[in-house]
Amino acid sequence: MQKEPFSQLVQVFAALRSENGCPWDREQTHESIKPDLIEETYEVIEAIDAGNSTKLREELGDLLGNVMLHAQIARDEGEFDINDVIEILTEKLINRHPHVFGDQVADDADQVLKNWEQIKRTEPGYEDRKSVLDGVPDHLPSLQRAQKLQRKAARVGFDWNEVSDVLPKLDEEMSELKASIQENNREEIELEIGDLLFSIVNLCRFLDVRAEEALRKANRKFAGRFKAMEEELERRGDSFKDYDLAGLDEIWDKAKESEVEVNP
Question: Is pLDDT above 80 for 257?
């Protein structure tokens, strides 16, 4: 009889880490496979962006595989196993959704998030979190971390009232940046650019735009247009050094026009 898929997966990872298993898997530690977890996560995101469900299924499997290996390493060291991971997750989900599994009422997603934060602060393991901002990982991409910090502060009332309140702040930060550039103060320039970026993230939050996602799309768009420029130069038998900025801008504009034609 065929084994249940999850049980079989657990046995596969136990075999890989066993005495007669895979030398590579046996050598791994939580620290050594940490970069793989980040890489697999971004590959899942790429599959989502591509709208490719077949690739998404595969990449989610790879991400799960990393989780399973972490759990097997912990089991081999006598710490916990994948069943403990699942048990804690299940308890957490039930406890943090009293509007589903209890008698609490949550009329909208904002109320759910506020309840979630309040419940977390009462759970074991969260006693040391004194600040509302505790729990936002330092290693998050900076734009994403800024947005999470702002959301947490907003939940306790530290926030602008309207998006129109945010726009003057952008003008203020830009003016301060211009002043630091005029003074040629490198340290102040860096600080003011940071403040400007933080304010832009705030604007993204008010407009319900994920700043990290917006910049990723802008990066992808730039890369696509730049590669189109390279292809056009190659077609002409030219190189970048054959053109001044005005000439390159003209080729860039043609790349943009071609992009619009392909994606009307």
Answer: yes
